Amino acid sequence: MRVTALPTPLPTAWIAAKQPQRGSPVTTTSEQRSVLIVDDEHDIRELLVLTLGRMGLRTDTAPTLTAARELLGSGSYELCLTDMRLPDGSGLELVAEITTRFPRTPVAVITAYGNVEAAVEALKAGAFDFVSKPVDIHMLRGLVRQALDLNTRPAPSASEEPAGRLFGESDAMVDLRRTVAKVARSQAPVHISGESGTGKELVARTIHGQSARAAGPFVPVNCGAIPNELMESEFFGHRKGSFTGAHADKPGLFQTADGGTLFLDEVAELPLSMQVKLLRAIQEKTIRPVGASIEVPVDVRILSATHKDLAQLVDLGSFRHDLYYRINVIGLHVPPLRERTGDLKLLSTGILQRLAQAMRRPTPVLAPAALAALEEYPFPGNVRELENILERALALAEGDLIQPDDLHLPRGQRPGVHLALGAANRGDTAPGQSPGGMQAASTPDPRTLSPYDTASTALPSYIEEIERAAIQQALQENRYNKTKTAAALGITFRALRYKLKKLGID
Ligand SMILES: Nc1ncnc2c1ncn2[C@@H]1O[C@H](COP(=O)(O)OP(=O)(O)OP(=O)(O)O)[C@@H](O)[C@H]1O
User: Fold this and answer.
1) Mean pLDDT across 49-59
2) Please, what CATH class does the domain formed by 417-503 belong to?
3) Annotated region Disordered: where (predicted)?
4) Is 295 exposed, middle or buried (0-12, 13-18, 19+ CB in 10 A)?
5) Phi/psi zone of residue 98: left (φ > 0), alpha (ψ -120 to 50 degrees), beta?
6) Reported pTM
7) Distance 392 CA to ligand 1 centre (A)
8) By CB count within 10 A, which of 338, 420, 492, 500 is most buried?
9) Ligand 1 within 6 A of CB of 205
10) How far is the CA of 384 from the centre of ligand 1 (A)?
11) Does the beta carbon of 202 sit less than 6 angstroms from any atom of ligand 1?
12) What digits encode the pLDDT tens for the residues 158-176?
């Protein structure tokens, strides 16, 4: 069915309280872009036709699955908006059919208010996004723009990707990149699991960078690093005077990420009280700043990650099942580096290239023996540890060939930090090896320094090197997870970050 005339008056019942705004046309080509609208309710079809028409789009409408199939057989569409419940079947069937037959046509579903299950099912089936009834026109316009943007945006070049490229040609990495490209075309929440340092944040950045939200902000937040009492205000913002110290209105992370992606790193660290509030914000797509009386709509895609087993935490009762269900619509796993040693060559070359470029020097080459040594090493800190090792090797290597000795790979059992400090004082570790089993040759071994040296900086540098050894040791033992490292050292995350910067670590 083709609708040619626009209906008047508007069926206002379907317009949510949040005031609709006039849409700017999205047509960028001389030809009008077409959208297929599938809904058995006449009023909704009319509302959608009018709204999309004002955006400069051409629309076809169908009241049933059968009619939609007929239109799909004869026309081509840049977007399909479908109701979930249709007289002759489910909108999910259409999602499955279109994603298989026309993978470049995004499908958004219209769900009944509060029907989270339907929304999650549709996203899992490959839907681009969902809108719930009553349809919020402002949100609908945003969704349509983003969906249409998918096929017009040029693919980002490697240099445009802020954190570099996801290197690796192992089956696991090839698979991961393929899935990343697929999920980037949807708005579904994605949960990324994997050990510390495997590249979870890089995966999240890549999803964002390839998505229709790429021009919007990517806001990473370490959920374990925000003090409990500040959490609500950090996430949702606050109004001036809402608590002691709130001297001015402050936007929260959700507002900062509006139009883009909010990456909840270490999501397992969220306290239960915050989990409830977060679930509400994700479900309702609105937030209420601390001290505010009204809710504010936010358009944010949620990506999350943890190195912990979230499903197990749900079983143990420390992570809410409903939040888990909502953020884990699509699950991605990044395997540890030791399970893809075949990637080491490409990863090392890519990382060395990036580091050398930043240092404005020629890219060194890894000697075959050095690569073999890397392949033998288990990398408890995964790619982040490899980066650290290569960065140090780059500083130490004479000439442009990195030899095994330049890598200073840790050997043997690593004792705890307290032992490391004790050993530093006793000097009972092997020569050339740090108390932690790893010593950056660029940093002097604390045991070779003396607080009584005549140089004026002797005591400060003695203390600094002991501090450096302890922090490096703790970082290794906590697999380069900074939150855990800070806890192990008995300092705050902020203090650790300051020290890392001051000491030039990482
Ligand atoms: N496949 C890869 N290709 C290139 N660089 C990578 C790859 N994987 C990880 N890295 C790099 O390794 C470092 C660690 O990655 P990232 O911070 O994404 O890990 P993570 O799993 O989020 O760590 P954590 O759990 O500690 O937060 C980053 O500098 C990242 O750019």
Assistant:
1) 94
2) mainly alpha
3) 423-454
4) middle
5) alpha
6) 0.74
7) 17
8) 420
9) no
10) 6
11) yes
12) 444 444 588 999 999 999 9
CATH of domain 12-149: 3.40.50.2300
Nearest atom, ligand 1, residue 387 CA: 12
**Helix, strand or coil, per DSSP, at residue 447:** helix
How many CA atoms lie less than 13 Å away from 95 in the CB half-sphere? 26
* pLDDT reported for residue 39: 95
Nearest one of 150, 176, 141, 153 to 77, comparing CA atoms: 150
CA–CA separation, 469 and 451 (whole Å): 16
Answer whether 222 contacts ligand 1 (Cβ < 6 A).
Answer: no
Q: Which residues pair with 130 in a beta bridge?
A: 109
User: Given the CA of residue 383, which atom of ligand 1 is nearest to it?
Assistant: 12
DSSP per position, 258-300: TTSEEEEETGGGS-HHHHHHHHHHHHHSEE--BT-SS-EE---
Q: Specify the fold of 338-371+381-407.
A: Helicase, Ruva Protein; domain 3 (1.10.8)
What are 191's strand-pairing partners?
304, 331
- Most informative mutation of 175, 201, 203, 480 for ligand 1 (most atoms within 8 A of CB): 201
134-140 mean pLDDT: 88
Tokens representing residue 45 in the block: 């079809």
State the sign of the Cα–Cα–Cα–Cα dihedral 110, 111, 116, 117.
Answer: negative
Chain position carrying tokens 């300051």: 498
Give pLDDT tens digits for 446-464. 444 444 444 444 555 667 7
Fold classification of 162-335 (topology level) = Rossmann fold (3.40.50)
Query: Does residue 238 contact residue 291 with C-beta atoms inside 8 Å?
Result: yes
Query: Nearest C-alpha to atom 13 of ligand 1 is from which residue?
Result: 384
Can you list the pairs that 102-106 forms with residues at least 24 positions away whose Cβ atoms lie under 8 Å? Answer: 102/72, 102/76, 102/77, 104/150, 104/151, 105/76, 105/77, 105/78, 105/79, 105/80, 106/79, 106/80, 106/147, 106/150, 106/185, 106/186
263 lines ligand 1 (CB under 6 A): no
* Cα–ligand 1 centroid distance for 347 (angstroms): 11
Nearest CA to ligand 1 atom 16: 199
Q: 389 C-alpha vs ligand 1 centroid, how far in Å? A: 14
Pocket test for ligand 1, best of 190, 202, 266 (most atoms within 8 A of CB): 202
Judge if the beta carbon of residue 194 lies within 6 A of ligand 1: yes
Which residue in the block uniquely carries the two structure tokens 């990650």? 305
CA angle 226/230/234 to nearest 5° reads: 75
Q: How far apart are CA 468 and CA 476, in angstroms?
A: 12
Q: Is the CB of 478 under 6 A from ligand 1?
A: no
Assess whether the C-beta atom of 164 lies below 6 angstroms from ligand 1. Answer: yes
Ligand 1 contact via 201 beta carbon (within 6 Å): yes
Task: Map out the domains of the chain as residue ranges.
Answer: 12-149, 162-335, 338-371+381-407, 417-503
Residue 307 Cβ inside 6 Å of ligand 1? The answer reads: yes
Same fold, 12-149 and 162-335: yes
